[in-house]
């Protein structure tokens, strides 16, 4: 059996198209343009690439994009003052502070200073609490993208056994909450889990968010399961740099029913969901109906 490939690149393009169409309608019918502000502190090369690609995608769907690039030695007071200005700016509906921040800045304090209604990363403690109690919140982009792909593939997820490998605050935990919200029976596995292979083999839906190249192998996958690979790992193979996931794709695809590739699976969905969250935040701020199919 060879698994169906879940094409995250194509799905993300569809989501971006739906966001763009909604943005165009907002402009035409209400004279409103959603706005996203991205704040980058320091010159981390990977973060610079992420920020410029977020800005480009934001403009492509017709939203206003604002980038604040601050020097690495920016004080916490100056950063908090900028966030306060963005919180008060009615043309900005989403605020994203690119992580990681330089060591002298308290990330928790900074993230929790963002207006929760504009917290399009879904990392503010209020949004974490709202998601955990099944209430309307801003949902972290990567798990939201995984949920969208799973709903698209399965229709209803109710009653399926889901195993999430990884318990980070940005992927594993919110992913588990979202699957629980869709009535899966959820297990969260981590580095102290006993007999991880057996736990994984019980999964109808297996989400790998571990950060270890190709750790989940085909023998850990239940025949016919849907495998979502969140991992992005840069490795050297045959003298060349290569991106691989947390799942050993070649062995897992022989057992799984469906699987996301790396690259081209979860990755492209993350930015698409950032745009979807910004649109949702804008609709909520203006008392307008939320876009269908683009929220949890
Ligand atoms: P973290 O390092 O924060 O968390 C990793 C989790 O994996 C931890 O909970 C850890 O357990 C668990 N883990 C580590 N080793 C093992 C093991 N041997 N067996 C079982 N569990 C283990 O990572 P993130 O959640 O931030 O990211 C996970 C992956 O997803 C990374 O590859 C990252 O690059 C990628 N990523 C991709 C994104 C995208 O857009 N596609 C976005 C965000 C992340 P414990 O808690 O016990 O230490």
Automatic annotation (TrEMBL):
Specify the species: Gemmobacter lanyuensis
| Pfam families (UniProt xref) | THF_DHG_CYH, THF_DHG_CYH_C
Domain (Tetrahydrofolate dehydrogenase/cyclohydrolase NAD(P)-binding): residue spans on this chain: 140-284
Sequence ranges assigned to domain Tetrahydrofolate dehydrogenase/cyclohydrolase catalytic in this UniProt record? 6-121
Instruction: Answer whether the UniProt record assigns the keyword Oxidoreductase to this protein.
Output: yes
Gene, per the UniProt record: folD
Does the record bear Nucleus in its keywords? Answer: no
- Similarity section: Belongs to the tetrahydrofolate dehydrogenase/cyclohydrolase family.
What's the protein called, per UniProt? Answer: Bifunctional protein FolD
Catalysed reactions, as listed in the record: (6R)-5,10-methylene-5,6,7,8-tetrahydrofolate + NADP(+) = (6R)-5,10-methenyltetrahydrofolate + NADPH; (6R)-5,10-methenyltetrahydrofolate + H2O = (6R)-10-formyltetrahydrofolate + H(+)
Give the matching InterPro entries. Answer: Aminoacid_DH-like_N_sf, NAD(P)-bd_dom_sf, THF_DH/CycHdrlase, THF_DH/CycHdrlase_cat_dom, THF_DH/CycHdrlase_CS, THF_DH/CycHdrlase_NAD-bd_dom
Which pathway or pathways does this protein act in? Answer: One-carbon metabolism; tetrahydrofolate interconversion
Functionally, this protein is described as follows:
Catalyzes the oxidation of 5,10-methylenetetrahydrofolate to 5,10-methenyltetrahydrofolate and then the hydrolysis of 5,10-methenyltetrahydrofolate to 10-formyltetrahydrofolate.
Q: Which residues form a coiled coil?
A: none
The EC code for this enzyme is 1.5.1.5, 3.5.4.9
Q: Name one GO biological process term.
A: purine nucleotide biosynthetic process
């Amino acid at each position: 059996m060879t698994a169906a490939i879940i094409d995250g690149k194509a799905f993300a393009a569809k989501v971006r198209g739906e966001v763009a169409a909604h943005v165009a309608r907002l402009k035409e019918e209400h004279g409103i343009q959603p706005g996203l502000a991205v704040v980058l502190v320091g010159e981390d090369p990977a973060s610079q690439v992420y920020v410029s690609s977020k800005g480009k995608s934001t403009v492509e769907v017709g939203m206003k994009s604002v980038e604040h690039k601050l020097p690495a030695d920016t004080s916490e007071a100056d950063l908090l003052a900028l966030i306060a200005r963005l919180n008060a700016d009615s043309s900005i509906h989403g605020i994203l502070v690119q992580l990681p921040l330089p060591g002298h800045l308290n990330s928790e304090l900074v993230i929790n200073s963002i207006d929760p209604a504009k917290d399009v990363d879904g990392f503010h403690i209020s949004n974490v609490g709202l998601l955990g109690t099944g209430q309307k919140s801003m949902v972290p982009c990567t798990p939201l993208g995984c949920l969208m792909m799973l709903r698209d593939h399965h229709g209803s997820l109710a009653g399926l056994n889901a195993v999430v490998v990884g318990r980070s605050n940005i992927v594993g935990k919110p992913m588990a909450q979202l699957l629980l919200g869709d009535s899966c029976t959820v297990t969260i596995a981590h580095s102290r889990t006993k007999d991880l292979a057996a736990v994984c083999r019980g999964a109808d839906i297996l989400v790998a968010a571990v950060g270890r190249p190709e750790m989940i192998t085909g023998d850990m996958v239940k025949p016919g399961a849907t495998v979502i690979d969140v991992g992005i790992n840069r490795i050297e193979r045959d003298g060349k740099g290569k991106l691989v996931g947390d799942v050993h794709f070649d062995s897992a695809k022989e057992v799984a029913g469906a699987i996301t590739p790396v690259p081209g699976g979860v990755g492209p969905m993350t930015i698409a969901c950032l745009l979807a969250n910004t649109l949702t935040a804008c609709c909520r701020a203006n008392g307008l109906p939320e876009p269908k199919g683009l929220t949890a």
